[in-house]
Design goal:
By secondary structure, the chain is mainly α. It has one domain. The chain is 83% helix and 0% strand.
């Protein structure tokens, strides 16, 4: 389902918030932890897996340095 087409008035501000948060000076690992926790609270398994994968990818990337 393309949520941007179904409900643009909800999804577009959400995307904008996401972009603003990730462009901020907040620690990226903290942002990912918060995103994961919000997904857990919302009960969204897809988002939980997505954010956990992103956290793991960042964590593994830090080891290469």
């Amino acid at each position: 389902m393309n949520y941007a087409k179904v409900s643009p008035s909800i999804i577009n501000p959400l995307y904008k918030s996401y972009e603003e948060i990730h462009a901020s000076e907040l620690d990226q690992e903290l942002i990912l932890l918060v995103e994961t926790r919000v997904s857990q609270i919302n009960g969204c398994a897809y988002c939980c897996h997505l954010h956990a994968f992103n956290r793991m990818a960042i964590s593994l990337g830090d080891r290469d340095e």
